[in-house]
């Protein structure tokens, strides 16, 4: 039987985010692009639903059904549940991933021990090799940046559970910081705001819809409007209310104000030699919140350097993981090549 080369092996790209998990299998395409949530039976521990199907149960639980979130605010909240979540998805493609090489995007907040535990769990499914890479680095690669060159790039990934700022150069993360000022915290602040000002109680999913509908960092000629549905705290009856972008303007300003502090912290910790690269290349913004109108102008006005919001902002990390195949193979060959003895 002919030996299978690394290039002939199937490549699997995995990006586990707080809000979304994306899995791409070579020759099959994107096999999973759904919510990072799993529904199980409390008594039997049996998996009832996963992904978007499980998300449909949010706020509608009954009986023994319980919802589990493997990731919260950019960190692993339950390693056992995360392993079950990934195994449930990947076992459907057991034959396709057998002997595969995997590029796994991990938040910088995930510890070395947690990374090793994830690698072991994925290897148990029959894959050949798992390469773990920082998600912010893969996001820049997915944005079309050649991360292997000795040029410094400042990346800002605006995710759901956390935001990450990092300087990437020569294929590695030079310095990075992360913050919980992100999509989920913005949703929670919207919930608190409506409860305090309008005496209406809404859920997280409704808050997310409000954020996605009327968030903007620039003044618009006509106000952005949306209808929010919840319960009146006074009467306990269902209630709807019309909101405009002005209603959540202060919340957004607070979130992005924290992000400027995050970027400043990364710049302060970076080597002086990279300052010129950052000024020339500017800030590369990825992640779901990057699509909020005015993000580019907000950061350009504050830092006075170029800012690029990539077109595939929400999918940049998984796109980078897919594009990382050759680099994953190179890394494996370097770390597993036999060391030659040198005679003196």
Strand content: 25-35%
Number of helices: 12
If you consult CATH, what is the topology of the largest domain?
Nucleotidyltransferase, domain 5
**Total beta-strand segments:** 18
Tell me, what is the CATH class of the largest domain? Alpha Beta
Describe the structure.
It comes from Spiroplasma chinense. This is Rod shape-determining protein MreB. This protein folds into 2 domains: 6-140 and 317-336, ATPase, nucleotide binding domain (Nucleotidyltransferase, domain 5), CATH 3.30.420.40; 148-309, ATPase, nucleotide binding domain (Nucleotidyltransferase, domain 5, 2-Layer Sandwich), CATH 3.30.420.40. It is flat and about 70 Å long. It is α+β, with helices and mostly antiparallel strands and 344 residues long. Strand 7 (71-72) and strand 8 (75-76) form a beta hairpin. It has a 5-stranded mixed sheet, sandwiched between helices. Strands 13-12-11-17-18 form a 5-stranded mixed sheet, with helices on both faces. The protein has helices spanning 52-55, 79-90, 94-97, 112-123, 135-142, 183-197, 204-214, 249-269, 275-281, 295-303, 316-323, 325-336; strands spanning 11-16, 20-25, 29-35, 38-41, 47-50, 65-68, 71-72, 75-76, 101-106, 129-134, 153-158, 163-169, 172-179, 200-201, 225-232, 238-244, 283-286, 307-309. The chain is built from 12 helices and 18 strands. Helix 2 (79-90) packs parallel to helix 4. The mean pLDDT is 92. Helix content is 36%, strand content 27%.
């Amino acid at each position: 039987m002919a030996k299978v080369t690394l290039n002939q092996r199937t490549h699997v790209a995995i990006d586990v985010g707080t809000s979304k998990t994306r899995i791409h299998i070579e020759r099959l395409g994107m096999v999973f692009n759904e919510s990072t949530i799993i529904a199980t039976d409390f008594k039997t521990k049996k998996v009832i639903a996963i992904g978007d199907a499980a998300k449909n149960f949010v706020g509608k639980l009954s009986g023994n059904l319980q919802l589990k979130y493997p990731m919260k605010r950019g960190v692993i909240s339950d390693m056992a549940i995360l392993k079950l979540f990934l195994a449930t998805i990947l076992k459907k493609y057991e034959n396709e991933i057998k002997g595969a090489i995997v590029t796994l995007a991990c938040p910088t907040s995930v510890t070395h021990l947690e990374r090793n535990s994830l690698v072991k769990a994925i290897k148990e499914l029959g894959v050949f090799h798992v390469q773990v890479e920082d998600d912010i680095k893969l996001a820049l690669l997915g944005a079309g940046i050649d991360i292997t060159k000795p040029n410094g790039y400042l990346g800002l990934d605006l995710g759901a559970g956390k935001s990450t700022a990092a300087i990437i150069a020569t294929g590695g993360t030079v310095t990075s910081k992360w913050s919980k000022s992100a999509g989920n915290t913005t949703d929670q602040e919207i919930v608190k705001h409506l409860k305090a000002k309008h005496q209406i109680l809404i859920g997280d999913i409704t808050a997310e819809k409000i954020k996605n509908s009327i968030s903007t960092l620039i003044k618009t000629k006509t106000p952005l409007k949306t209808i929010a549905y919840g319960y009146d705290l006074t009467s306990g009856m269902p209630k709807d209310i019309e909101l405009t972008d002005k209603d959540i303007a202060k919340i957004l300003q607070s979130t992005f104000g924290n992000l400027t502090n995050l970027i400043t912290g990364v710049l302060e910790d970076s080597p002086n030699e990279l300052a010129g690269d950052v000024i020339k290349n500017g800030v590369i913004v990825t992640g779901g919140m990057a699509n909020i109108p005015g993000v580019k102008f907000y950061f350009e006005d504050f830092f006075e350097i170029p800012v690029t919001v990539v077109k595939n902002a929400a999918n940049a990390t998984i796109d980078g993981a897919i594009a990382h195949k050759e680099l994953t193979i190179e890394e494996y060959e370097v770390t597993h090549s036999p060391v030659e003895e040198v005679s003196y």
